[in-house]
Amino acid sequence: MLVVKEWLRKWYFVPLLVFISALAYLPNIRDFGYFRDDWYLMYSANALGVKTFQGIFAIDRPVRAILMTGLYSLFGMNPLYYNLAAYVFRVMGALSFLWTLRLLWPRQRTATMVAAILFLIYPGFLSTPNAIDYQEKFVGLFLGHLSVALSIKSILSTKRLHKVLLWLPVVLTAGIYPSLVEYYFGLEVFRLLAIGLLAMRSSGGKIAQWVKSTFFEWIPFMVGPLGFVIWRFFIFESARKATDLGSQFGLFFGSPLEVGLGWVITLLRDSVEGLVFAWVIPIVNLWDISLRLREIFFAGVLAVAAVLVMALFLKPRSEDVTQGSSDSNWRAEAFWIGFICLVTGFIPVILSNREADLNNYSRYMLPSSSGVAIILMAYLDQFSSRSVRNVTIYLLVVSSIMMHYLNGVQWAHSSEAMQDFWWQVSWRIPQLEPGTTLVANYSHTAIEEDYFIWGPANLLFRPQSMDPVTIRPAIWGMVLSQGSVSSILTHAEPEFVERRTIQTSVDYGNILVLTQPTPSSCVQVLDGRSPAISEFEQYDIQSIARESDQSHILLSEQAPPPSTGVFGPEPERGWCYYYEKASLAYQRGEWSTVLELGKEAEAKGFSAGDSVEWMPFLQAAIYLYDRDTAIALAPKIKNNPFLAVQACETLTNLPELSTESKYFAEDIFCAL
Predict the structure, then answer these.
(1) Quick one: pLDDT at residue 425?
(2) CA separation (Å) from 133 to 7, 36, 55, 67, 596?
(3) Would you say 185 and 225 are in contact if contact means Cβ atoms under 8 Å apart?
(4) Do the beta carbons of residue 282 and residue 126 sit within 8 Å?
(5) To pair with 284 at 20 to 30 A between CA atoms, which of 167, 250, 386, 599?
(6) Residue 359: CB partners within 8 Å, gap ≥ 6?
(7) DSSP string, 571-613
(8) How far is CA 207 from the centre of its chain?
(9) What is the pLDDT of residues 288-344, one digit of tens each?
(10) How many CB atoms lie within 10 A of CB 264?
(11) Which residues contact 113 (CB under 8 A, 6 or more apart)?
(12) DSSP H or E stretch at residue 432
C-alpha cells in the first residue's frame, strides 16, 4: 500500500491524464465506424493488401504509408482498434508535452499539470473519432512533442553519454513527425523557444552570450528538421497542390499584397478562434443538434466527475511553491512562449492557403493547441484568488468534457446512420452489376466525394478489385452537382477518374439512385420506369429519378452478408426491413409476397415514416386486383397531394397491367 501511495505521489499525473481524457474520448468509442476518407483506405487495403498504401500516399505523404501498413497489419478492418490507438497516442502526446513543461518550469507542477490537461482535451479539435484517416495526426503530434522533450532533456543532462544517446531519437522523431503532417512544422519554433529560454537563464543577461548559446545548443537538433526540409523541397515532388508549398507560394507571388493581407487576417482570426472561441463555439453548435436530455445529462455527469477528481489530485502541494531564480519570471516566460507557439502553429497552415475552422477543418487547430495551453497556464496562475483560478480551470474542463462527449454522440449517430443505410441496401439489393454508377443521398451527411458512395458499396457487394495489380472498384459513385445532373440527363460519355492510384469511372448513362430523403425515411431505390418520389426528396434527385435503372440489380445472385466489423451489427428488423424486402419482391414480380410482408409488418405494429413507402404495397394490390387492400391503402397516398399526383400516372401506367386493374386504379386515384 505504501508503495502505491508513493507511486501516486510521484506519478499522479499519469492516472489523472488517463482518467480525464477517458471521460472525454472513450464513452462512445465502440460506436465509431468508418468516416469520410476511411472508406477508400479500408476498401483499397482489403482489396489488394497493405501494398496499396504506398501508391495512395506517394503523391503527398509517403511516410504515412509505413504507418498505415503497420497499423493495418495489426488492426485490420476493425475501427475500434484504430480509435483506441488514437486515444493512446493522444495521451502519450500530452505526457510528452507535460515532460517539456516540467523540464522548463520544474517547480510549477500543478500549473504544468493543468496545461497538459487542457492540451489533451482541447475542444478546438473535434475529429478524434475519424481515427483511421487521422492516425498520422495523433502519431505526428506525439512524436513532435516527444522530440522537443528529448532535446530539452539532452541539454539539461550533465553526462555527455546521456546527451549523445538522446541525440539520435531526437533527430529521428524530428524528421518523422513533419513527414507525417507537414503543417506540424511549427513545433520547431517551440523547440527553439525552449532552448532559448534555457540559454537565457544561463547567460547572465548578456544578449550576445544568450544568442550564441541558443544557436550552438539548437544546431545539433536541426539535423532531423533540416533533413525533412531538404527532402520536401528539393527531392520530393508533391503531386497534390494542397501539400505543395511551391504551388501555394505561386499564389502569393502572383498577387503579394492581396494574398499577404489575406494571410495576416486569417492568422489573426485563427489565433482568436483557437485561443478563445474554441472553448465556446463548438458546444453552441453541438447544442443546436437534436440531442436527448439523457445525453446532455450524462455529459454533465462526466464533466462533474472530471472536476471532482481534479480537485482531489490538484490540491496545493509543497513542491508547488515557487523557489529559485529559474522560476522567478515563469509566468512571463510561459506567456510569450505560448503566444508565439499559438501564432506559429497556424503559419504553415496559412502559407498553404488553408485556414483553421472549428467545424470542418478543426485538424488545423492541433499544432497551436500547445500554445493555447501554455498561455492559459500562465494566465490562470496569475489570479491572486485560488478559488477564482480553480473555478475558471474547472469551467474550462467542464466545457471541454461536455463538448467531446456530445461530439462523440454526434459522430456515433452519424456512423450508425451510415451503417443503417447500407444494411437497408443489403436487404433491398441481392447483388449489383459491375460497372454500375451509384447516385446516393444520405440523410445524415453531405456527400463530398464519390468514394463516400463507392467505398461502402464495394465493401458490401464487390470487395475485390477488378484488377489484380491496380485498385479498380467494380462499383462506381457520383457526387451530384449542376454539372453531373446535366451530364446524366444528356447521357454524356463516361469519364475515367484516377486518384491516388485508384481507378474509377463515371457512367452517366448507367446509374442507379439510392436515396434516404429524411432520417425517418427508409432507403429508396428508384425505378426510372415508374419512380415513386418522396415529398421530402431533394430537387436534384427528383430531376434524375427517371434515369435510375434497376436492371443493374442482379436478382439471381447474392452477395455475402455485410461485415459486422465494417457495417456494425444488423439493425432491428423494423418497418424498413419489411419495406426493403417488399420492394425487392415487387421488383421480382412476386406481388403476393409483397402483400404478405405488408400484413406481417402491420401485425407487428410497424408503419411507414415516409408515405411514399406505401407505394410497393399499393402497386402489388393493383396488380393482383386486391380491391380491399388497395382501398385501405389509398388514403395513405391520396391524403398527400404530392404523392396523389404521382399515383394517378404511376399506378395507371404500370407495365403489363390488366385492363381491369388499370380502370380500378383510375377510379381511385384519377377521378376528380
Answers:
(1) 96
(2) 37, 8, 16, 11, 45
(3) yes
(4) yes
(5) 386
(6) 285
(7) PP--HHHHHHHHHHHHHHT-HHHHHHHHHHHHHTT---SSGGG
(8) 47
(9) 566 677 888 888 899 899 999 888 877 654 445 443 334 558 889 999 999 999 999
(10) 10
(11) 13, 16, 98, 313, 314
(12) none
Q: 149 Cβ partners below 8 Å, 6+ apart?
A: 96, 97, 99, 100, 103
Give me the amino acid identity at 534. S
How far is residue 94's CA from residue 102's CA, in Å, rounded to a whole number?
Answer: 12
What spatial distance separates the first Cα and last Cα of the chain, rounded to whole Å?
87
Q: What span, in angstroms and rounded, lies between the C-alpha atoms of 8 and 16?
A: 10
Question: For 94-128, how does the pLDDT look when each residue is reduced to its tens digit (9 = 90+)?
Answer: 999 999 999 999 988 889 999 999 999 999 898 99
Between 109-120 and 13-25, two packed helices, what is the crossing angle to 10 degrees? 20
Measure the CA dihedral 51/57/61/64, to 10°.
Answer: -40
pTM for the complete prediction? Answer: 0.89
Summarised one tens digit per residue, pLDDT across range 28-46 is 999 999 999 999 999 999 9
- 114 and 144 Cβ atoms separated by less than 8 Å: no
> Which of 55-76 are b and which e, b meaning 16 or more Cβ less than 10 Å from the residue's Cβ?
bbbbbbbbbbbebbbebbeebe
Mean pLDDT of the chain: 86
Closest Cα partner for 300 from 410, 401, 393? 401
